[in-house]
Write a structure and sequence with these properties.
Layout: E1 2-5, H1 14-17, H2 36-40, E2 46-52, H3 55-65, E3 73-77, H4 83-93, E4 99-103, H5 106-115, E5 119-123, E6 142-144, H6 147-156
Parallel strand pairs: 1-2, 1-4, 2-3, 4-5, 5-6
The structure holds magnesium ion.
Residues 6, 8-10, 103-105 line the site of magnesium ion (MG).
């Protein structure tokens, strides 16, 4: 199983733990959602992070969260639409018939995942949680209210 993760509001609460205009110093207090570290420690899956943002800030977030060594690969994209190409590269590097995308944006990682035929889990969390799908590509296979719910869905599907 290959799992592609978003970072902000998927592995920790960006909306609750950081102000809108945060800088590097504010990152020190962020903590992962319960269940994140346990899932990422499981070696039978391949774990890949695909996040949009500034490289220095996104890398620092991963370091503060204690997640850096737990990923098999980390992609940091300058623009949201670049995530789709990162997904393709991850699929080429880690070819698995069972590939999943987990994220909090229906119009971003869920859409790109579905366009590529991946299974999707939408974590309804943060400031985009009231977004309404524009078309079928923005309707996820699974919806979770917490990261623990994400883990339960993966387990029920053979993780
Ligand atoms: Mg996000």
């Amino acid at each position: 199983m290959l799992i592609l993760y978003d970072l902000d509001d998927t592995l920790y609460s960006r909306t609750e733990q950081l102000p809108d205009d945060y800088g590097e110093n504010e990152l020190e207090a962020i903590t992962p959602f319960p269940g994140v570290v346990d899932l990422l420690r499981q070696k039978r899956m391949v774990h890949v992070l695909v996040t949009r943002g500034e490289t220095v800030l996104q890398q620092k977030k991963l370091a503060v969260l204690g997640l850096t060594p737990l990923f098999d690969r980390v992609f940091i994209c300058p623009r949201d639409e670049d995530k789709k190409q990162c997904f393709r590269e991850a699929l080429q590097k880690f070819p698995k018939k069972d590939a999943w995308v987990i994220g909090n944006r229906l119009d971003s990682e869920i859409r790109y995942g579905k366009e590529l035929g991946l299974k999707t889990i939408y974590l309804r969390h943060g400031k985009y949680s009231s977004y309404v799908p524009r078309d079928a590509f923005e309707v996820p296979e699974y919806e979770a209210d917490s990261f623990e719910d994400v883990v339960r869905i993966l387990r029920e599907n053979g993780a």
